[in-house]
Specification:
Layout lengths: L1 H12 L28 H6 L20 H4 L6 H5 L7 E6 L2 H12 L6 H18 L8 E4 L4 H7 L3 H13 L8 E3 L11 H8 L3 E3 L1 H4 L3 E9 L3 H12 L4 E9 L1
Parallel strand pairs: 1-6, 2-5, 5-6
Antiparallel strand pairs: 3-4
Helix pairs in contact: 6-8
Length: 254
């Protein structure tokens, strides 16, 4: 009777046991056993598979409606030809939508740090693929994550851009220089503002350090690009501090 009672209790408790294999991305119970090679479920692995889609090398905008980009990978979109961005090349892993968007939000705001390794892999693989197309990317001498204000950093506990960049920096043998770009003014989170308000909100929020940037080619890293206002301001401040060139790497392009 005692054994039967214990078995019954274990059966009732099984849905709440913490030792079940769960997907680091969505939290659903994942396939267990020796054949499981990833901390992600099949749906999340599919969402993080490399995406071969033509995109403008200046702003990362997908160019499905402009066939010439498929034949000329270095061709800029009409918007970038008219108003060039203050950086050289921009590389992104995928579109900020669907499961990729959910995984990024879970990583940043829900404490699902287990998905961080997979997101690092995505960022690193996106850069490596494009470095074969654009050799100038291989000239990057240091990695500069977009900085958080000290209060936001304390609230979140980590800078997601810095964490995402670590795997790429290690593989390429590049130093991560957070001190090369400092956040000198606290701002309203960009995600709370409309497109027309973002550029004004972020103006004057950053300062570059010539000690680390002068004469060097830097890779600026962020998790998401929406309008590009933050990345533009960062790039301008880095160039003002003497950077020879700035390239941009983001995980997702909205």
């Amino acid at each position: 009777m005692i054994h039967r009672g214990l078995a019954l209790l274990q059966g009732l408790a099984r849905p709440f046991m913490l030792d079940e294999a769960r997907c680091a991305g969505c939290g659903l119970v994942a396939q267990a056993g020796p054949g499981r090679q990833s901390s992600l479920c099949p749906d999340c692995r599919l969402a993080l598979a490399p995406q071969e889609v033509a995109a403008c090398p200046g702003c990362g905008q997908r160019q499905d409606a402009q066939p010439e980009v498929l034949q000329q990978p270095s061709a800029l979109c009409a918007a970038c030809r008219q108003s060039p961005r203050p950086w050289g090349r921009l590389v992104s892993f995928g579109a900020y939508e669907g499961r990729l968007r959910e995984l990024i939000l879970a990583y940043k705001f829900q404490g699902r740090l287990g998905v961080g390794r997979q997101l690092q892999e995505c960022l690193a693989s996106a850069f490596e693929r494009q470095a074969h197309v654009f050799p100038e990317l291989a000239a990057c001498e240091l990695v500069v994550p977009v900085p958080l204000h000290v209060r936001r950093l304390a609230w979140r506990g980590f800078n997601q851009s810095r964490e995402l960049a670590k795997l790429l920096a290690r593989r390429r043998g590049l130093p991560i220089r957070q001190e090369a770009l400092m956040r000198v003014r606290r701002t309203v989170p960009q995600m709370e503002l409309g497109r027309s308000e973002r550029a004004e909100n972020i103006r004057g929020a950053f300062a570059g350090a010539p000690k680390f940037l002068a004469g060097r080619t830097a890779l600026l890293v962020d998790d998401i690009m929406t309008t590009g206002s933050t990345l533009e301001e960062c790039s301008r401040m880095m160039r003002a501090a003497g950077a020879a060139q700035v390239h941009v790497l983001v995980l997702a392009r909205a």
